[in-house]
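User: Hi! I'm working on a homework problem where we have to compare a predicted structure to a textbook description. Could you give me the structure for the chain below?
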Amino acid sequence: MQVPAPEELDTFRASRPAIPRQTPRRLWLAILLFAVTFLTCLAAGRQFAIAFANGRAASLDEFFVSFKLLYKDPTALIAGFPFAISLMTILLVHELGHYFACKQHHIRASYPYFIPAPTLIGTLGAFILIRSPIRSRRALFDVGASGPLIGFAAAIPILLYGVAHSRIVPSLASADTDIIFGTPLILRLLALKFFPGTDPLTILLHPLGRAAWVGLFATALNLLPVGQLDGGHILRSFSPRLHRWIGWLVPAILLALGFHWQGWYMWAAILLALGFLRIPPIYDQQPLDSPRIVLAIITLLVMILCFMPVPLWQSATSH
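Assistant: Happy to help. Predicted structure tokens:
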């Protein structure tokens, strides 16, 4: 790696306070995307609420009915509020963690942008755009780790409430037309506490628990140690060499997992494409201090608790 000359470092340090302040010209876009995403999450939340009330798994057919109600009868979506508010809160807290970490290190960043989508969960997540270089390894770590850690912390009480108010449906894992959601490790651990001796796949999550499930899944995806994902930032701040090697290993692992869930093929392709993008150099190579190393270990544990080899499937194709 090419090491910058001392005069370049002096120029960098002198220029840091002069980073322009963000203008509010894109605030309207962030608000618009937030509002639209909230509506699509309402539709998703309604079908989760109806499925829970009827003691059955989520259904794509019921979701499409809910989606049509967005323009036919929006008042019928009231049942989706607990799911939508919970999920949007988890995603927003995650992105605000990144946003304020950028502010702390004088890094220009956009407002959080949500991605509405007519999917079973109503969204494809949220993101911020980083508009200026991240100059130090410690700043890189802070920006990468802040979102997942704070988002995970926000998801835990929602998950606890959701699991505590869930129910056991023995036929849940064998209904031919239903969608079956995978069970992350943290949910298996909570099942041992709230429903000892029960197959986790037979636990029908309360809509708030399902919102937390989506937040945990998004956290696991973001913590994959590849490219410019949150996990990639964390790993690169710890060891740029490991970041390069693992950046090619993780897509290979996801390709192997694709035999069990085809969605991993898409993620492997995305991560491979990210590997060809230019990553800006880090000028300040000061290593992570002890508190950040401890937090790095915690983020690894969070990913292990949240990751699911098979996030969802239809039982008709799994037996």
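For your comparison, note the following. The two ends are 51 Å apart (CA to CA). The chain has a mean pLDDT of 86. Good luck with the assignment!
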